[in-house]
Amino acid sequence: MSAASIAPLVFEGVSHWYGDVVAVNDVSAVVEPGITGLLGPNGAGKSTLLQLAAGVQAPSSGRVKVFGESPMGRPSVFARLGIVPEREALPPTLSARAFVEARATLLGMHDVRAAAATALATVELDEVADRAVEGFSKGMRQRVKLAAAMVHEPDVLLLDEPFNGLDPRQRAHMMQLLEHRAAAGTTILLSSHILEEIEGVASRMLVMVAGRLAASGDHRTLRRLMTDRPHTVRIRASDPRMLASVLVTLPDVIGVEIHGTQVLVRTADHAVLARQLVRAAQVCNVTLHAVQPADESLEHVFAYLVNR
Ligand SMILES: Nc1ncnc2c1ncn2[C@@H]1O[C@H](COP(=O)(O)OP(=O)(O)OP(=O)(O)O)[C@@H](O)[C@H]1O
């Protein structure tokens, strides 16, 4: 394989556990240049996967490859990576410039001042770069962190919940910035727990649920997977007959069957059903004990949808 065809980031059967907690469970994926969204509810394993990609943590099993090499303890790979962790505190009295320059120094860059100035200009913070970050908005702080992560113009950028806490204008600005980087050839993997937040910017998505890769594809594929085809949902409830009598009246319900204590519902749009189900149960005073897709392959995606 030629160097040019080596994927920027590859996960091969990667697992990671913290004591008894399996945070990442046998994930295999190839991340190509452009923007890939890493989607999943809280605790799905997104941060851990990003840390594995950055070589901050070693996989418990499986392999992570950045341009064909393990990122663990390899300065040559490290120089091609940038990461913005979810919870990174900025020293409040430090200026944006000092923070970004400190990162450039750590990375052993030759012209620290010039590199920091370029990165700060890229995130449009050059005019306020000498102010202490304690006076900065959440969006500005995110941009400082991004400037620090990009100061060495890495080929792979890993961003953990970069839109968290940003208002719509700041979010749009951040998206534009990432799109520019991606257009320049950078591979960006960014996490989020909100599909709507990243579907406009990510050309491909990896969906994680409970440590596993539950689905992948472009946002249309995922939307289709989640909503467009008929699905059968298995419901266990305190009064299946009563619940069934209400469910048959819902417009998106195609069929209802009762099997003992279970109700099998066939629906055209299970995202809509998930929303209507709770209301239907309340209307007829029925307790829902379990809601699961009968279609096993969609179990994780469905669980994600109904839990968020
Ligand atoms: N340092 C740690 N020690 C023990 N368990 C951890 C540690 N870090 C994460 N976990 C656990 O691993 C699982 C995955 O966590 P992770 O932070 O990777 O998920 P996430 O999708 O990024 O969620 P969030 O958005 O809430 O951070 C969770 O059950 C979490 O409690």
Q: What would your notes on this structure say?
A:
This protein is α/β, with parallel strands linked by helices and 308 residues long. The protein folds into 2 domains: 7-222, 3-Layer(aba) Sandwich (Rossmann fold), CATH 3.40.50; 224-305, Alpha-Beta Plaits (2-Layer Sandwich), CATH 3.30.70. The protein has 11 helices and 13 strands. The chain has a 6-stranded mixed sheet, sandwiched between helices. Strands 11-12-10-13 form a 4-stranded antiparallel sheet. It has a 3-stranded antiparallel sheet with strand order 2-1-4, covered by helices on one side. Helix 3 (96-106) crosses helix 4, helix 3 runs parallel beside helix 5 (138-150) and helix 4 crosses helix 5. The protein is elongated, with a radius of gyration of 23 Å. The two termini are 42 Å apart. Bound molecules: adenosine-5'-triphosphate (ATP). Residues 18, 21, 23, 40, 42-48, 86, 193 line the site of adenosine-5'-triphosphate.
